[in-house]
Amino acid sequence: MHGTVQSLISAGASGLIVDIECHLSNSLPAIVIVGSATKAVDESKERLRGAFASSQLQLPRKRITINLAPADIPKDDSGFDLGMAAAIIQASNSSMPAPGKTTTFIGELGLDGSVRPVRGIIGKLLAGRSHGVTHFYIPIGNLEQSLLVPGIKLLPVKSLRSLYDHLTNTDRLQIIETNEGKHAPTINRSSEPASSLSEIVGQQHAKRALEIAAAGGHNVLFNGPPGTGKSMLARALPSIMPDLTHEEMLEVTHMHSLVTHAYDTVVTLRPFRSPHHSASPVSVIGGGHHLRPGEISLSHRGVLFFDELPEFSRTTLEALRQPLEDRTITVARAKDTVEYPANFILIATANPCPCGYYGTSKPCTCLPHQIQHYQQKLSGPIMDRIDIFSNVSDVEHTKLITHVASEDEDKHTKNRVARARDRQTKRFGTSTHLNSSMTNRQIKQFSNLDPAAKILLDTAAEKLNISARSYMRTIKVARTIADLAGSEAILPEHLTEALQYRQPTLN
């Protein structure tokens, strides 16, 4: 007696199809799982026994051999439980038709017969859909996230008993068609950002830098003494960024579901991640025993905030080189290699020296070699990947209490950012590709540099001795400034403003 069903295994940001084969033979009753199954999968034997007993279902009194194919890929996922149970039911009921190649089973069994939610359900559904799978048996606890995925049919399973009744045509499960993604029209965006631009007193130059960053996806470094509002500025960035699109919600929710137990939560707001400077490199870039996403992937389509950038370890900062350039992170380990998306806006802050008051009206207590050592913590390659540098100065104390926040400022800024992004959507044919992600070929194709602006850029590049990467990044920033101004061409005034932000503030 033989039964075969399909399931899915997480593989980085995506997944792979796994065939679950069950064979019943006349020997001593036992459950044997083969196919590079780790301890988490091998323990399914006890969960299967408990679930069948609690559901008043007879487990075949035979030797049950379960093979997970392909056998050369390690399996470390409790989501195979439901597929194993379905394969056993099929093998012990010869009259039951096989589910077929367009159906998969995903879910973890409880000893009471319940079906528990699993991590990374969105990635598994997307991977299954790309392999031609149309029907997915999933835990009912994963339904909210699963409804985001368009073009599939879901069969939510509450318990093993309900699955058995469905497979034996006793009581059929409800089939839910997601169509275009049923959750999209009902998303609640009522949560307010932690801070907004209108609450910040003064700092017009820094606010303009945030507007450019939000419009084009550029990285920003704020430099200035303590207490001037650098962190507050960084936390205000999400308030002027456009809402997540349906496609972006899929990506962001999937990344967060891989590292949290919030299986029924849909991420509707742009992420804002702010790791402490003592965070380990693995926690920031991803990895670990199970190769989970790090902070740079959890901030995908959002903001990654590094407060006091020079205080982070050099290993962590140098690890940012690839994701800042490629918008992805490749985590390579001895057992496996995975790739996670990491398309974020980096907002960093830095003091001019350890005490924070070098070059200000307050006396600096640092020795010259301490200032030099502090500023040299940021390597040239990292500084070269920052698009916008902005000094943040002290604010007059008399204005702090009398300042009245205006909601119109946030609304007008957000509208300007949205219009600039609309221009980029028309230019690149997608809403997820911004000016900061332009390749050299796209820069040559879409920059549309005015001849006078080209002469200005070449002259500035020679006098300022900027690198080739900085040269191209300056054009990207100027292209965003032109988009904010509604200009098809990059004019000298757009390039002049971009060059103002190109000047490094840490010397």
Structural description of this entry:
Helix content is 37%, strand content 17%. The relative contact order is 0.10. By secondary structure, it is an alpha/beta fold. The longest helix has 22 residues, at 407-428. It folds into two domains: 2-184, Ribosomal Protein S5, domain 2; 197-502, P-loop containing nucleotide triphosphate hydrolases (Rossmann fold), CATH 3.40.50.300. The protein has helices spanning 39-42, 44-54, 81-92, 121-130, 143-146, 160-167, 204-216, 230-236, 246-257, 281-285, 295-298, 314-318, 321-326, 368-375, 380-384, 398-402, 407-428, 440-446, 451-464, 468-484, 492-502, and strands at 2-11, 14-25, 30-34, 63-69, 103-105, 108-109, 115-116, 135-139, 153-157, 176-177, 220-223, 272-273, 286-287, 292-293, 303-306, 328-332, 337-341, 345-350, 388-391. The strands form six sheets. A five-stranded parallel β-sheet has the order 12-15-18-11-19. A four-stranded mixed β-sheet has the order 1-2-4-3. Helix 7 packs parallel to helix 17 and helix 7 (204-216) packs across helix 20. It is elongated and about 85 Å long.
What is the topological layout?
Layout (H helix, E strand, L loop, with lengths): L1 E10 L2 E12 L4 E5 L4 H4 L1 H11 L8 E7 L11 H12 L10 E3 L2 E2 L5 E2 L4 H10 L4 E5 L3 H4 L6 E5 L2 H8 L8 E2 L26 H13 L3 E4 L6 H7 L9 H12 L14 E2 L7 H5 E2 L4 E2 L1 H4 L4 E4 L7 H5 L2 H6 L1 E5 L4 E5 L3 E6 L17 H8 L4 H5 L3 E4 L6 H5 L4 H22 L11 H7 L4 H14 L3 H17 L7 H11 L5
Parallel strand pairs: 3-4, 5-8, 8-9, 11-18, 11-19, 12-15, 15-18
Antiparallel strand pairs: 1-2, 2-4, 6-7, 9-10, 13-14, 16-17
